[in-house]
Structure formats: C-alpha cells, structure tokens
Amino acid sequence: MSEWMRQIELVTDSPEQTRRLGERLARCLTGGHVVALVGHLGAGKTQWVKGLAAGLGIDPDAVHSPTFTIINEYTPKSGLLLYHVDVYRLGSAAELEAIGFSEMVAAADGLVAIEWADRVAELMPPGSVWITGSMPSNLGENQRQYAITSDRPDVIDALQAQD
Ligand SMILES: Nc1ncnc2c1ncn2[C@@H]1O[C@H](COP(=O)(O)OP(=O)(O)O)[C@@H](O)[C@H]1O
Ligand SMILES: [Mg+2]
User: Fold this and answer.
1) CATH code for 7-157?
2) Is the Cβ–Cβ distance between 49 and 37 less than 8 Å?
3) Is residue 29 classed as helix, strand or coil in its secondary structure?
4) Contact 125 CB / ligand 1 (< 6 Å)
5) Cα–Cα distance for residue pair 77/87, rounded to 1 Å
6) Model confidence over 9-29: pLDDT tens digits?
7) DSSP string, 99-122
8) Given 2, 95, 114, 153, which is the most exposed site by the fewest CB atoms within 10 A?
9) How many angstroms separate the alpha carbon of residue 62 from the centre of ligand 1?
C-alpha cells in the first residue's frame, strides 16, 4: 500500500444507509474512475452500485447485478454513465479485457463499478476505490461492515461525514 493510501472501516445499519454512502461516493468521482467491490454474496456490493446510480441521476431500481451479461450500462439524462460490471461468472481477467474493460475505463465517460473485483485485481487501474464488505457474526442482520481503501482523501472524508 503506498504511503498515500488511506483506509477506513465503517458499519452501516441498513441497505438504505449503504446506498447513501454510494450516492456520496459518486459525487466525489469523475469519468473513468473505478469502484472495486469485494465481498461474498449479500455483502451489499449491488447496494453500493444502486447508490452510485442515484448519485449520477440514474434510477437505482433499474440497477441489478449483470450476472449473465457481465456488463450493464446505465445512461442518465445528462452527465456520466454508469458501467456496472459483475465478474462472478467470468473465467479470467483476460476475458474481461476481451470485453473491452480497459477501453471503457479509458473512455472516461462514466463511472465503472465492478463486483468481485478481487478476481481481476490486476486490471484495476491506479486510483481505484476498493470497498470490501463483510458480515461479521457480531453484527445484526441489517448491518454490514465495509473497509474502504483509496489514495483520494476527499473520498474518505466524504464517506466519513455524518448523514
Ligand atoms: N446494511 C446493509 N447494507 C447493504 N445491504 C444490506 C444491509 N442490511 C441488509 N442488507 C441486505 O443484504 C442484501 C445485499 O444484497 P446485494 O447488495 O445484492 O449484495 P451483493 O451484491 O454483495 O451480493 C440485500 O438484500 C440487502 O437488503
Ligand atoms: Mg451483486
């Protein structure tokens, strides 16, 4: 981890609270930024993406994990697109490359959110925001723990701010 990397851990008490964090995160990011989501099924990765969508002016109810399509693209009335990638069923990083992942990042016309990013970690560009969700047994049913790592202090500050 570079000396500029900052990590915070926080716990949310509801899916809505997780989505609000995603909404705040979207406002800190610009085209070509990658949000790399990690964690088992149910960790709340898709809730983060719904929040990112809301932050970009996209209907969060339209956002579902693109398990069979690998990539879903959502277009707001104006502003950045949202590329929603889920590599759960992908065999390798090479497959993601073949779909055009690097071009999508380089185009810089949208935010890129990627579920199960640890499986293709070598493709995540510098400046990615890593979010790792977990459900430790000491937490309640509607709580999730997130470790967020970024080399951008503004991202960390925005997520730490109170609701
Ligand atoms: N604090 C929380 N944050 C996010 N999701 C939560 C939380 N509490 C309960 N949940 C529930 O957990 C599930 C998370 O699902 P989802 O976002 O699809 O996870 P993933 O994409 O990681 O598989 C949803 O059913 C959501 O309602
Ligand atoms: Mg999901």
Assistant:
1) 3.40.50.300
2) yes
3) coil
4) no
5) 27
6) 999 999 999 999 999 999 999
7) HTHHHHHHH-SEEEEEETGGGGGG
8) 2
9) 16
Q: What's the predicted TM-score (pTM) here?
A: 0.95
pLDDT at 94: 94
CA 59/CA 75 separation, integer angstroms: 10
Q: With left for phi above 0 and alpha for psi between -120 and 50, is residue 38 left, alpha or beta? A: beta
Q: Do 115 and 46 touch, CB atoms closer than 8 A?
A: yes
Whether 7 lines ligand 1, by a CB cut-off of 6 Å, is no
Task: Give the pLDDT confidence score for residue 1 in this predicted structure.
Answer: 52
The residues spanned by each domain of the chain are 7-157
Quote the radius of gyration of the chain (alpha carbons, Å). Answer: 15
Any atom of ligand 1 within 6 Å of the Cβ of 65? yes
Residues of the chain with pLDDT under 50: none
Residue 163 confidence (pLDDT) = 62
> Which pLDDT value is given to residue 161?
83
